[in-house]
Amino acid sequence: MPPLASTPHIPLRGPGAVDRLVFDFGGVSWIRIYPRLATVLQMFIRSRPRLSRFALLAVALIIPGSFYVSHRVYRHHRLHRVAPPLHLPPPPYNHPHSNEHKLWHSRAEEVKVAFLRAYKGYRRYAFPHDELKPVIMRGGDNLNGWGLTMVDALDTMWIMGLQDEFQEALPFVANMTFALDEAKFAPFFETVIRYLGGLLSAYALSNETVLLDRADDLGTKLLPAFNTTSGLPANGVNTVTGEMSFGWLPGTVMLSEVASCQMEYKYLAHLTGRSEYFEKVERAMNVIRRTSVRGGMLPTQLHIVSGAALNHMFSVGAFADSAFEYMLKQWLLSSRVESKALNLYLRSVSAILENLLYLSPTRHLLYVTDAETTTDPPTPSRRFEHLSCFLPGLLALGAHTLPPSALSPRDRELHLWAAEGLANTCWILYREQEAGLGPDEVEFHNTQFKYDDGNPSVGYVKEKRRKREGLLAGRWMEHVKEWESAGRPGGVPPGVKDPKPVMKGLRDYANKRREYFLRPEAVESFYLMWRTTGDRKWRERGWDVFQAIELRTRTPTAYASLMNVQQVPSQRLDEMPSYFLAETLKYLYLLFREDDPIPLDRWVFNTEGHAFPMFEWTVDERTKYRIY
Fold it and tell me: PANTHER family, per this entry (predicted)?
């Protein structure tokens, strides 16, 4: 390359050769990159005596040389390191001829029968539409009209050993074109987690290449959603024209929607070698990491052009939930080398524990809510969504997979306590309804915290400290700190012990949305709690939920959502969401299986319950994507 016009000529021998050595080091010509700086430094060196020049040369070589060598060694170590194996607790063992083994095997088979009932109802009355309307027994297209329920259920069929149903679906999948009319748009988030995730998981389990081909086709057709100024994906995209749509709030994207595509696209990048898949979703993650927030409290809304925060709401509910899930699971999926995702997870979870976890005023149930962050401390809404019941399972998974370098012993305890307490509350919200199924949203009472001197986890607080604002508000972390400073009386922190159901009278909360939408989050957490703790209560609770589903939601052809969990019988809603087959029944089946077909030290579930195998980036991939 010819020298830059502004670069002065410097001889390789004779006067000035020493200067040239200073500016050419490690194969990089600093004169070419920083010509003005080079000129100033060159004049400074030439003004020194010859002996001083050699001293300056030595310093100029040693200092950057040390940094250069250190960087190369560190980078080589990071690129070639192999993640140590995970050591999750093995599932409790029951002898194959024991009554316990037979009991849980029979219960898993009952879930399989329920799945077949739901799927056959869909195939008979709704296919090739997206979902079954189980009351009028017709199909409906609410997500692109590409046969959603079939694609979403593929990996569940494989896991349950339903090979006839799986093979019957493959010809339909092979002919999918993902076409849309020009005026229609595929919702990016839902299409990625359900269709793309379903195809990738089914491929990973079966090795049927047609599934990967269709996943690659769909991944390509959805890529134009990233053609925004910020790089955050748009709300929707037309898979034929590439045109984008921007949802019901133009210029606004939800945190959950832009941060819940990374697992699918990174796995697809690894399978196909197509770098644009990785680069697009990683750019979106970088925008989220740069978002200016206080104390790690990410907003639920971002600006599609600038990526800036558009509100001050911190939440793990509908607009944010899976974003936090994917922070940990990206790290797990690629064998725990993507430190940027891990650091974002740790920062976010610390903020969640500190600002969103509360104890109810009289029964001291632990719950997670959302909060307005313009105040200090943030102001809680005290709403608790069924969607947020994913959090205890995520915390338990993280506590058992994060290394000591990432999670101190005390923080690990906090994560496990929070997981136990939140999962207990998710269970109690099912147990206390007439239908035995959880409402979609409750609101806990905003009254002063009541101390129970007979309860060692809260009765220890000294009288003079009981009026402190944070304690009266029920902020969980403040109560935990008081409990720890008092010597951990009772051995169980506030909000963690098993609560007793209250079937009548005051319950500390009111049902704000009484529907049951066949949602999976509670049983997902029961499954993860069972797999990480081995405590049988989570299986029994899952069985109670399944029995309630059978009793309250079953229709002549399949299953239906309920209008009101406080009434028995309750009106059925004319819907059976595809996630009922992709997640709810899958997690219940895995909860009851005596073996472990999807071990958590080798597989990671996306937010739609689709299982992806953990993989390792090659050295070339880590170099190309700067993963070190």
Answer: ENDOPLASMIC RETICULUM MANNOSYL-OLIGOSACCHARIDE 1,2-ALPHA-MANNOSIDASE, MANNOSYL-OLIGOSACCHARIDE ALPHA-1,2-MANNOSIDASE-RELATED
Q: How many helices (H) and strands (E) does the chain have?
A: 24, 19
In 3D, which of 389, 369, 255, 250 has the Cα closest to residue 319?
255
Return the active site residues. Answer: 190, 194, 321, 521
Token pair recorded at residue 453: 């001197």
Nearest CA-CA partner of 592 in 89, 92, 47: 92
Q: Which residues contact 72 (CB under 8 A, 6 or more apart)?
A: none
- Report the alpha-carbon distance of residue 457 to residue 365 in Å, rounded: 12
b/e 66-100 (16+ beta carbons within 10 angstroms → b) = eeeeeeeeeeeeebeeeeeebebeeeeeeeeeeee
CB 215 within 8 A of CB 275: no
Q: Is 309 helix (H, G, I), strand (E, B) or coil?
A: strand
> In sequence order, what are the beta bridge partners of 562?
516, 572
Residue 607 marked ligand-binding: yes
Angle made by CA atoms 626, 204, 216, in degrees to the nearest 5: 65
Domains of the chain: 113-625 (1.50.10.10)
For residue 97 the two structure tokens come to: 């001829």
pLDDT averaged over every residue in the chain: 90
Q: 29-43, 172-186, 281-295, 435-449: which has the minimum mean pLDDT?
A: 29-43
pLDDT of 17 > 90? The answer is no
- 10 Å CB burial of residue 482 (0-12, 13-18, 19+) is buried
Write out the two tokens for 557. Answer: 């052809």
Of residues 108 and 89, more confidently modeled: 108
* pLDDT at residue 20 in the model: 44
Closest CA to 125 of 517, 584, 574, 518: 574
- Alpha carbons 222 and 477: distance in angstroms, whole number: 42
Q: How large is the angle between the packed helices 148-159 and 99-125, nearest 10 degrees? A: 160
What pLDDT sits at residue 59?
Answer: 64
What's the pLDDT score for residue 441?
98
Q: What is the mean pLDDT of residues 598-605?
A: 96
Residues 370, 316 contacting (CB under 8 angstroms): yes
* Gyration radius (Cα) of the chain, Å: 28
Residue 239 CB partners (closer than 8 Å, separation 6+):
178, 179, 180, 186, 218, 221, 222
Rounded CA separation 277/283 (Å):
10
Is residue 497's pLDDT more than 60? yes
218 closest CA partner among 198, 234, 235: 198
Cβ atoms of residues 565 and 514 within 8 Å:
yes
pLDDT of residue 183: 94
Per-residue pLDDT, 628: 73
Kindly give the pairing relationship between strand 509-513 and strand 138-140. Answer: unpaired
Of 380, 323, 325, nearest to 357 by C-alpha is: 380
Q: Please, which pLDDT band fits residue 44 given cuts at 50, 70 and 90?
A: low
Write out the two tokens for 96: 């194959």
**Residue 220 and residue 242 in contact, taking contact as beta carbons nearer than 8 Å:** no
- DSSP 8-state symbol, 574: S
Contact status, residue 582 vs residue 153, Cβ threshold 8 Å: yes
Among all chains, which residue has been given the structure tokens 């029968």?
113
Which is higher by pLDDT, 619 or 549? 549
Selected residue with higher pLDDT from 69 and 116:
116
Q: Is 208 helix (H, G, I), strand (E, B) or coil?
A: coil
* Structure tokens belonging to residue 283: 């750019």
Say if residues 545 and 161 touch (Cβ distance below 8 Å): no
